[in-house]
Records
---
Amino acid sequence: MTQKLSDKPIAIAADHRGVDCKERLKGWLIANGYVVKDCGTNSAAERVDAMDYALRAVAEIKASRSDIAVAICGSGQMMAMTANRFPFIRATLVHTEQECVWAREHGDANVLVLGADVIDAATGEQILASFLRHAPRGDRYADRRERLAKLDISKL
């Protein structure tokens, strides 16, 4: 196991299409010493709206119960779009470990979004491990993150 970026539980949420991936990643997290806050859903049998579960994961970060979340739906798109509606969220939808490294090191992503229909479970585990292994870099990326935090869409 790598050094933990946070001692807080990692929030994890999925819609019906992401349940199997969520369960596998939850198992991986627990096996690697992480505490997990499962934000649902827990059944692939009934269709649910990904937006509702993205909001549950976001709420964990907003309440400071989690610093990091993982959100999974079929494509990952709805989870990412929903989570990124909030200024304190930096959700990243990735398909490769390299994208994940850039999102963490350059953008300080705090929500990892995966598409269960796009990547296989083993790749999801590799991406999650990479997400948890990398921390934000300094230098020019710190300036970029500061600019991002100051963006005010009401002034566009």
---
Amino acid sequence: MSIKIYGVQDIKKELQHLDNSQLMELCLRLVRHKKENKELTAYLLFDADNEQAFIESLVAENGFMFSQLPHNNYQLAKSLRKILRFLNKYIKFTASKQAEIELLINFCRNYIQYVDKRASTYKPLRLLLTRQLEKIQKTIAKLHEDLQFDYSQDFNAMVGEAEEKLKWLNMNDYLL
């Protein structure tokens, strides 16, 4: 016995046949079951119309989370991963490459500012930064040329700051 799994197209066709009250019931039922469904629905209803304000609130929350970082290397790496999970969830909600770049550049700037230089010798901490730098590079490459130019200047400036503060980072590996 197997359970049939329906695709997005099948679900879309079926949703077109429902009236508004049935559609609302389905949505509310989805929201009740998973926290992430509730967060996505709240974003779409309340924050999607003003994405820039939403990004600014995420940047502020990100800054607060960085100010609360522990000093132990293991706990520090764990906290940084938690911050990245938080950011990646909302990046997925926005589905915007520009928002992704802005939030990840902000993450990297906060990393440079708050993570101890001596803690940066801990390989998992270094990898967290280098992976985000590579992710930003790939995302910038997917943008329109004008946006690429603007974001690449911001990215290169941030990489320059990182090389000054973090001696293990080679700027030439990441410049756009």
---
Amino acid sequence: MIKKCLFPAAGYGTRFLPATKAIPKEMLPILTKPLLQYGVEEAESASLEHMVIVTGRGKRAIEDHFDISYELEHQIKGSSKEHYLTDIREMMGKCTFSYTRQTQMKGLGHAILCGEHIVGDEPFAVILADDLCDNEDGKSVLAQMTTLYEKYQCSIVAIEEVPQEDTNKYGVIAGEFIEDNLVRVNNMVEKPAPQDAPSNLAIIGRYILTPDIFEILKDTKPGKGGEIQITDALLEQAKQGKVLAYKFRGKRFDCGSVDGFVEATNYFYNK
């Protein structure tokens, strides 16, 4: 039912300067694989076939990664190194990749809105590649969420419990549990101070959104940080009882921070 996954990938990655001066942060590798490839593989594991990547200036490496490199492939053809490209070749064969640019950095909500003309009038997923997720039982976070969407047919956000003192780093939800690990959302606040947070249930970088979100985003005024926040748009849907929050099974790494990036590297190396 859901076939498209949108990847906002236009940010500057300033926490990783100077590395991200010329390299997109989404292309930083955990071991030998870029963060964005992990995200695309997760989307494909949930049977999504069309990857919509919202890029910006200086992000051509993303397009090049999901393309054939004739000279490189010719050089390693028949050698012991050829197998290193097996996974990415298979991914390119299974998926379609479309690209559009976010010409101004006006927030996550604006980045999602930039993909409207490709996504069209259908539900879609969103993955933030610097939230790297892993699941030991083999069912990815996004695959868990698409199963829920088939039942509830509304927007869904992935959540996890965070320390109360960290709520100012996340969108935070409140609501009523309707199933184990599933909340019907009645309030959402973007990056609240710990004393103002409605809970310690924080939204992480996995969303399923219904297409009416685009019209809501067009009417959403800039919020926290002067940016168009997806949290504010989702709150409008939540007021109609149309947003669920799911406490996913799995482990998540904040690879937008140096500490989280190192933790993820060590985790996947040991695994």
